[in-house]
Amino acid sequence: MNTSEYESNPILDKLPKHLRQYIKPQNYEDYTPVNQAVWRYVMRKNVDYLSKVAHKSYTDGLRKTGISIDNIPNMYGMNRILKDLGWAAVAVDGFIPPAAFMEFQAYNVLVIASDIRQLENIAYTPAPDIIHEGAGHAPIIANPEYAAYLRRFGEIGCKAISSAKDFELYEAVRHLSIIKEAKGTALEEIEKAEKHIEFLQDNMGEPSEMAFIRNLHWWTVEYGLIGSLEDPKIYGAGLLSSIGESQWCMTDKVKKLPYSIEAARTSFDITKPQPQLFVTPDFAFLSQVLEDFANTMALRKGGLSGLQKLIDSKELGTIELSTGLQVSGNFESLISHDGKPIYFQTRGKSALAYREKELVGQDVNQHETGFGSPIGRLKGINIPIEDMSPRDLKAYKIYEGEIVSLDFTGGINVTGKIVTGTRNLQGRIILITFENCKVTYKNDILFESYDELYNMAIGEEIVSAYHGPADLKSFDLLDHSLSTNCYNNHQEGLTELESYYKLIRDFREGNNTIISRTKVFEVIQEKYPNDWLLPIEIYELAILSNEKKLAESIKKHLENIKLDQPKLGQLIDDGLELATVTTMA
């Protein structure tokens, strides 16, 4: 990603290359007058309604983050204000992988899908768009406690280990979001995509860590309520950006449950309104539950189960041994004894690191075909190698130039000539390098070479296992190509309907005050009888200027639309009510 394509700042400068690949220019000029009208309608409705039911941080945050009710936010303008909160925002390519999404949060960066929903999906869309991200996520980060939770969630969430089925579900949801917002998609295709998601959700098998963490994210960051069960307030971005669900969720038809770690095991369906929501007493409690969940993750537990999770995931991951040595790669197999791993093997490019920094000479070129090593204690010796002093090592002949045969508990044997050892900052040995080395398990040869050096990891146990590499610079993680704008399909020039939206917008903003709103309405009524949003905008202006005859004509026209399309009834009624509220104000 060329940084010249977006405006960087000190926070964005810290982003690693593999995250920058998802950033794309906002292209503000691509927003049509209809897009602007959609934003304005949703924001006016939200601010009017949410001021009563949202957490007070929402309305405070709108002001602090500089998000306008009348105009789609410009990312550059948002960043100038967000920097005072210690955050930044970037436009990204719609749905991005969950781990990447969370890693952005760990760097105090909000990812904002710059596309905006179509008028047909004004009440709700499963696709991430600027209404959801900009008007939903951004305002709440003005609350310091919540911002700390969001950042911490990113740090922990991006380390969660996924399964192959997680990726399949992600791709299915991403596909649905694209076709649902793409103009002209057949209803049959959308229904087929929704059924495919339902099938995947019903056949996920044992949930992965990423599945659990996504559930926690959904029930807090996206669909969270805060306060008491009797009088909850909205803070989740999915609710804040949905004029339909923000009202639905406040009714008795949606069950309210006290938030706890059990939310991690409560799945959700992105295609349907949620039957229950979780209520946290305050933002600090969110962090408490997050830490409780993190204690269940391989990130903190390590061990045999953590290593097995990495093998099952088939994705790039890292284990950290008790010496602090970190091994990154695609873990392929293990050997265990008495419930503990005694040998692990990666395949393909692998790298070794200490404290997230690659060890010199232990990069993917050195370990191009994989890395394997025994772990644990030597048989019959009470003190583990990592705790041996230089005198201990010499006494056991684990010393430079010695030809040794090391028998590990569980049956692994390493025979060879010791070339050198690598120590950590505390002086503990973390790696031993051999030549003329042979590694066996019972009668099986795991490694044998007289020409190639063998590096044996030192560590009594695996203390951590997590998604991704220890040192981000060790691997080429650039694998994403930016897609074209799927929603708005920007064309040269405006359509006739869009040009009328622009005329009314210009009039309201004082850029063109000589147009006849009556004539514009008559054209819309004749040529675009199903369009309801522009008549509402004209109605608002008619009410403001006390043009009662025009207002009555528009209201009658909208009543006819409601008869033909009952599903638009609530949207039209809300629009008319907003116009009245504006006049009274």
Automatic annotation (TrEMBL):
An annotated Gene Ontology molecular function: oxidoreductase activity, acting on paired donors, with incorporation or reduction of molecular oxygen, reduced pteridine as one donor, and incorporation of one atom of oxygen
Q: Which family does it belong to?
A: Belongs to the biopterin-dependent aromatic amino acid hydroxylase family.
Q: Which UniProt keywords apply?
A: Iron, Metal-binding, Monooxygenase, Oxidoreductase
In terms of superkingdom, the source organism counts as Bacteria
- Establish whether keyword Metal-binding is in the entry: yes
Ranges for the Biopterin-dependent aromatic amino acid hydroxylase family profile domain?
A: 1-343
**GO BP, one example?**
aromatic amino acid metabolic process
Q: What is this protein called?
A: Phenylalanine-4-hydroxylase
Query: What residue range is the signal peptide?
Result: none
Q: Which residues bind Fe cation?
A: H132, H137, E222
Cofactor section: Fe(2+)
Pfam families reported for this sequence: Biopterin_H
On whether Nucleus is a keyword of this UniProt record, the answer is no
